[in-house]
Write a structure and sequence with these properties.
two-stranded parallel ribbon, Rossmann fold, alpha/beta, 13 strands, 7-stranded parallel β-sheet
């Protein structure tokens, strides 16, 4: 489908998609460009050479640079800022500082600039279901506790939780904010973890840890993008929502959990041209639990 501007007075007069060249950003920009009620679309990203759309305008820069962000926002004066920038969850430990720089400092900088610019009316933040503390989670709703700011177990999860709190705490009469907590992503142009999954296909025998019956919530890039646009419209026009949206958090998924190994199995079958689960080696989950415990014990002594 082509990206076409359709009406002259859209409810989202203009939008800035921060992280708009990432996986979700690509789908969100496309959704905005195709939406009858969306106007000009701008993108801010550290790397604007990938996942581009012809009818969007691009700014290259880092959101932790407050003055740069202020200049962009004051120049384009968007009515909505979508903050979906984040390092991938699987960064090596040597780069963990990037989580704090983007998910916390970058979020603070964006909120400050948004509150200063009278054109910005709505702020939509992409959080994550991984912000919920103490997995596994079964039927967890939005009241489930998030990771503590002092937690040291996972920097991605911790900083996503901090950003989530910051955005909801910034909600007010002039700047309405909302956080979305998507399930695990999949879809066109999703590459995170793909290399690792395909590398496993090179071995003749594939190993599965656990019985594979554990479920997880997933969301396609397209559905996630639609949710972000709907949230922005509800912030701009609260009458469109069935309840309060500003200052709130919402889980986002395809609507039905799937087995943890489902997507991996689809990828493996496509790569090998056969159903790999007929030959997969299944190890009980306790084997890995013991292995991790022993590794942690050895490292700490």
């Amino acid at each position: 489908m082509s990206d076409i501007r359709k009406i002259s007075t859209p409810i989202i007069s203009s939008s800035l998609v921060v992280g708009g060249c990432g996986f979700l950003g690509y789908h969100l920009v496309r959704q905005l460009l195709q939406d009858d009620e969306s106007g000009e679309v701008y993108v801010l990203d550290r790397d604007v050479s990938r996942n581009r759309h012809d009818n969007a305008s691009y700014f290259k820069g880092d959101i932790s640079d407050g003055e740069f962000v202020r200049g962009v926002v004051n120049d384009i004066r968007p009515s909505v800022i979508f903050h979906c920038a984040s390092p991938i969850a699987a960064l090596p430990m040597s780069r963990e500082r990037e989580f704090y720089e983007t998910n916390v400092k970058g979020t603070e900088a964006l909120l400050t600039v948004a509150s200063e610019c009278d054109a910005v009316q709505a702020f939509v933040f992409t959080s994550s279901v991984d912000a919920y503390a103490n997995p596994p989670h079964t039927n967890a709703d939005e009241t489930y506790p998030l990771w503590s700011p002092n937690d040291k177990s996972n920097e991605y999860n911790r900083t996503k939780a901090i950003g989530d709190h910051l955005v909801r705490g910034a909600n007010g009469p002039r700047l309405r904010t909302v956080t979305l907590r998507p399930g695990h992503a999949y879809g066109e142009r999703h590459v995170q973890g793909m290399v690792e999954v395909l590398d496993m296909c090179k071995n003749k025998k594939l190993v599965q840890i656990g019985d594979g019956k554990n479920l997880m919530e997933v969301v396609s890039g397209e559905n996630n993008a639609i949710a972000h646009v709907l949230a922005a419209k509800a912030l701009l026009d609260p009458s469109r929502a069935s309840g309060k949206v500003d200052g709130e958090a919402f889980n986002v998924s395809d609507g039905a959990p799937v087995p943890f190994w489902h997507h991996t199995g689809v990828i493996w079958k496509t790569a090998r041209g056969e159903d790999i689960f007929k030959d997969v080696i299944v190890l009980p989950a306790w084997v890995m639990i013991v292995a991790v415990f022993l590794a942690d014990y050895e490292e700490s002594h």
